[in-house]
Amino acid sequence: MTFLLDAAFAHNPRPLRLHALKLRLALMAIYYAYRERQPAGEPHPYGCSLPSVDVRNMIGLGRAKDARALRRAIGELQDDPAYQWINLSQHGRRLAFALEPSLCHVAHMERYALIKNEDFQRPGTIADFHLSLRHAEVRKMKAPACAAPPVGAAAMAGPGSRPDDDWARRTLLPAVRRLAARIDAPVFVGAVWPANPAMAPSLRFRFGGSGTVWTPAGMRKVRIDEHAWLVTADGAKRLNRPRIKPVHAP
User: Fold this and answer.
1) In this predicted structure, what is the pLDDT of residue 1?
2) 196-231 residue pLDDT tens
3) What are the residue boundaries of the structural domains of the chain, listed by start?
4) What phi and psi values does residue 3 have, to the nearest 5 degrees?
5) 164-167 long-range Cβ contacts below 8 angstroms, 24+ apart
6) What is residue 243's predicted lDDT score, i.e. its pLDDT?
7) Tens digits of per-residue pLDDT, 108-150?
8) What is the per-residue DSSP string for the chain?
9) What is the pLDDT of residue 2?
10) How far apart are CA 148 and CA 13, in angstroms?
11) Model confidence pLDDT, tens digit, residues 183-197
12) Would you tell me how many other CB atoms lie within 10 Å of the CB of residue 91?
């Protein structure tokens, strides 16, 4: 199943755990597949109801013996602007949901993400999931590139994690490496940390490949204040380690 998602709803700005992230897109995939099968002229549905086991299988909870993990994921999505509501029946066997109305009556999208099943079923970490979505938003561009503001970097780190330089080295770059292997192309990563180390960085990504117009020089272009790497399936090569430090007035 492939569907288009308005870019404004592609990313949840709050840090979520992996099953909640997967559930968020899985329900959208279910809705759009269901709506395509509706007879022409029928009223537009805003959501649907289905056996919860089908949802659990989609998000990697098929072997769970009960619905507790699914309930936790639903709880994380209660304030998500993409959904009016998501409910699990008392016995946990059926799940029902309704999307935000503008997602049900899409006439034109200035910016969108082309979502495929693999974007929310394959990723094994929170960082993998967010990177798949970032790539889904730009993969049809001639020079695919995108930026994640500090709130996006914090979401990419997940609940309870701080997106510092150690996180970038241990978690982000390995996830980018896996994506580079999957798309068979190099990926540029740029990160700018603010003077306050407790704050999240802003991130930039460029996705190379034979179908793009990126040149080697264009892929490697960095800002003076930016930590930067060029990542391939074989590893990450450091391009820039800024030496700039703030000087405060006496």
Assistant:
1) 65
2) 877 899 999 999 998 999 999 999 999 999 999 999
3) 1-104, 153-238
4) -145, 160
5) 164/193, 164/197, 165/191, 165/193, 165/227
6) 85
7) 566 777 888 777 777 789 999 999 999 999 988 999 999 999 9
8) -EEEEEHHHH--SS---HHHHHHHHHHHHHHHHHHHTSPTTSPPPSEEEEEHHHHHHHTT-TT-SSSHHHHHHHHHTTT-TTEEEEEE-TTSSEEEEEE-HHHHS----SSEEEEEHHHHHS--SHHHHHHHHHHHHHTTSSS-EEEE-HHHHHHHH-TT----HHHIIIIIHHHHHHHHHHHTS-EEEEEE--SSTTSPPEEEEEE--TTS---HHHHH---TT-EEEEEETTEEEEEE----------
9) 78
10) 10
11) 999 999 999 998 887
12) 8
- Tokens representing 67? 């619905």
The label of the residue with tokens 């930039």 reads: 204
Average pLDDT over residues 147-175: 94
Closest CA to 127 of 169, 89, 94, 98: 169
State the residue for tokens 């991130």.
203
Q: How far is CA 156 from the centre of its chain?
A: 8
Distances (CA, A) of 56 to 74, 93, 238: 12, 11, 40
For residues 59 and 7, the model is more confident at: 59
